[in-house]
Q: What sequence folds into this?
């Protein structure tokens, strides 16, 4: 049984909680003969007001501001309901998604409750688990195993060592014999070792209720056409799980998965959570053309809420994207200052003004554009941030700020000097607590900038 745990914060983003990582893990387990249930504690989303932890008392004076957060919440099911669901399925193995440092406390709490009530094997995986496997093992004895990296690569060997080499589990251990699975489904294994080829499998979408995942009136699903990104942006850590070698699925396989979702799950919005979907221009062009020419896809919407790298877009690709069903364009600009982008190693092969060309072309094509800025980066100033925002607003672009937070495994994480009490406290690794101050940007300035963006964006919202 695989669980997406509850979380605690001021907000979450219900339209992007599709448990894609767990569905890939589920597929791996199914291939090995397990009967799998995916239990998403966050969907349908429930929230309950809870007390703001004392360490964030500095945010209290702002909670009255109409443009700031109002309350601190626990999102997700109560633990009694989770225990009940686990009892009902009675699993031999439980896997928890552990993607965020900020919400590790909730994973730990859930792990401890599970261990008190059940004797099954308990494992965690995901980005956070991959960043800190040793620390997690040492910190949370309730967790039996920390599986790092992509489940398709690491889970088979974990299953083999755990279930074939002495550890007990109910059921028939023969079914975990790799050789046996290999002969049955030979083509899904890489030839050089025993891991699965993620490009040859689909996430186990069939294990969730598609009607729980909706954007407005329409069912949506997240998927991945590629993994990995060749760049080395200093604030990014996606390479910890997916590496630097972009790895694309065959276009046909992505189209088939979309058709399955369209027909069986009535999905009308397809959200790509790739690290760098548009990096391989030839692949992206071929994919868009396939979608355009296929009658089944009339009226669908495509989006890449994780953002597209503007450096890899051009007028022709934008036009194909529009025809294929992209209506919104999410573009990470990061900072308006080219020198800061350069220092952060942002890809900018086409020059520092190229972003603004893309904006103009996209506007002409009728896209709704959101540009994402990181606020609070080393070297940034308040003036630059306000100027960039004003420029974006003048172009009719929504400017969305993300307050800079610590990302374990990133270059900045290694080199930035951060007070120990912040670095040692995973709760602090989130935007919403304004943890990191720089020489130019105090916490007060960051909070005021955040409020300013919200106020301005609201005033500009179309009626
Ligand atoms: C989609 C997404 C979200 C969604 C939620 C996704 C979800 N279902 O929970 C939303 C938009 C809500 C979100 C929010 C945040 N996110 Co986010 N998000 C992502 C993103 C872009 C993609 C995740 C994804 O679907 N990947 C595709 C799947 C297939 O990959 P995967 O989940 O890693 O799963 C694979 C492996 O990890 C492993 N695996 C995963 N789970 C498990 C479980 C088991 C048992 C096993 C064995 C293996 C395993 O196998 C899978 C298949 O190979 C990642 C970046 C990334 N590229 O992963 C960031 C990322 C996870 N987010 C991150 C962060 C920090 C946040 C925020 C906390 C930032 C903030 N604003 O403060 C917010 C929280 C806001 C809030 N209050 O909700 C960080 C986490 C870093 C860390 N270690 O702390 C990441 C890595 C991005 C980054 N580098 O900054 N996020
Ligand atoms: S382009 Fe995006 S995914 Fe690639 S390294 Fe930079 S931030 Fe990370």
A:
């Amino acid at each position: 049984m695989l669980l997406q745990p509850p979380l605690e914060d001021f907000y979450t983003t219900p339209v992007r909680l599709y448990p894609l990582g767990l569905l890939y893990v589920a597929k791996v387990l199914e291939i090995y003969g397990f009967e799998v249930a995916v239990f998403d504690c966050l969907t349908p989303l429930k929230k309950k007001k809870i007390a703001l932890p004392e360490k964030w008392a500095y945010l209290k004076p702002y909670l009255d501001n109409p443009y700031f957060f109002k309350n601190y919440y626990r999102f997700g099911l109560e633990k009694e309901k989770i225990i009940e669901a686990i009892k009902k399925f009675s699993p031999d193995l439980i896997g928890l998604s552990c993607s965020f440092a900020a919400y590790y406390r909730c994973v730990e709490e859930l792990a401890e409750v599970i261990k008190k009530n059940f004797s099954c094997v308990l494992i965690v995986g995901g980005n956070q688990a991959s960043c800190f496997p040793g620390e997690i093992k040492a910190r949370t004895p309730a967790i039996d195993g920390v599986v790092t990296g992509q489940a398709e690569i690491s889970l088979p060997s974990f299953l083999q060592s755990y279930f074939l080499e002495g550890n007990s589990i109910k059921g028939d251990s023969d079914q975990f014999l790799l050789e046996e699975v290999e002969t049955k489904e030979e083509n899904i294994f890489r030839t050089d070792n025993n891991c699965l080829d993620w490009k040859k499998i689909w996430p186990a979408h069939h294990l969730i209720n598609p009607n729980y995942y909706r954007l407005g009136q329409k069912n949506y699903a997240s998927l991945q056409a590629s993994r990995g990104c060749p760049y080395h942006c200093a604030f990014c850590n996606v390479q910890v799980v997916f590496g630097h070698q972009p790895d694309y699925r065959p276009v046909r396989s992505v189209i088939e998965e979309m058709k399955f979702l369209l027909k069986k799950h009535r999905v009308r919005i397809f959200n790509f959570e790739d690290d760098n979907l548009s990096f391989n221009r030839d692949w992206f062009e071929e994919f868009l053309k396939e979608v355009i020419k296929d009658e089944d896809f009339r009226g669908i919407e495509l989006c890449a809420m994780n953002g597209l790298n503007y450096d890899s877009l051009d007028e022709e690709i934008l036009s194909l994207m529009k025809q294929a069903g992209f209506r919104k364009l999410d573009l990470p600009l990061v900072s308006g200052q080219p020198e800061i982008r350069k220092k952060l190693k942002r890809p900018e092969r086409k020059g520092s003004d190229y972003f603004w060309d893309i904006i103009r072309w996209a506007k002409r094509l009728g896209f709704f554009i959101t540009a994402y800025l990181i606020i609070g980066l080393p070297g940034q100033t308040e003036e630059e941030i306000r100027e960039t925002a004003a420029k974006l607003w003048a172009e009719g672009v929504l400017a969305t700020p993300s307050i800079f937070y610590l990302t374990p495994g990133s270059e900045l994480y290694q080199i930035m000097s951060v007070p120990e009490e912040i670095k040692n406290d995973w709760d602090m690794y989130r935007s919403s607590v304004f943890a990191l101050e720089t020489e130019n940007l105090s916490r007060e300035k960051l909070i005021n900038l955040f409020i300013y963006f919200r106020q301005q964006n609201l005033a500009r919202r179309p009626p």
Notes: The first helix runs from residue 20 to 31. The first strand starts at residue 2 and ends at 4. The chain has two domains: 2-199, 205-459.
